Amino acid sequence: MFRTSDRLHLWESALLIAFALALTAGCWASASESALASRVLRLHVVANSDTEEDQALKLSVRDAVLAQAAPWLEGAVSQAEAEAALTPHLDELARTAADTLAAEGCGGPVTVSVEDAWFPTKVYDGFSLPAGRYRALRVVIGEGAGRNWWCVVFPPLCLGSVTEEAAETALEGGLSDDQVSLITGRDGGYVLKFKVIEWWNELLNHLGL
Q1: Alpha helix (H) ranges present in the chain?
Q2: pTM to 2 decimal places
């Protein structure tokens, strides 16, 4: 028979083990998300509103921005190089987006910037990205009150020509084998790993860290 003190010691040990495991998982999640976020430049297009027309305009602007940005990103091998290549052209990208709207009969303003933004977990064609804060090329149409469109401008994972070769494109863009396995699901465990990353980020946000 276990004495009361023995049972308390067992519970204490179990709690310590659980805490250690949670801390280990949290540290892994934080390191994985931070390392991945430092390698990619997201694209964040925000529609004017949620009307069918504004949502369609958002996709037209997305296509125009991706097409114009692609040549400037050729040769970039890191997030920093990609940002440096795009930053001098932000006004041009805004004009292109505005011209795209005008061609569709809409005269709304567009702002384009590169900044940090929070992204939820997102599943794309051939790869997925965990929730977290990422550096992003942000395009806001009009009031910016509509649903967002998220993807990756570097490595160029959101161009139609590379979606079937996401792993190869990600490797060429500087992601490690482990990071490619994580986002493409090659290791078979990305769903659980993404949940751990989400859980850890939610905990940090709740604690105000």
Answers
A1: 4-37, 52-73, 79-86, 90-103, 166-172, 177-184, 190-207
A2: 0.69
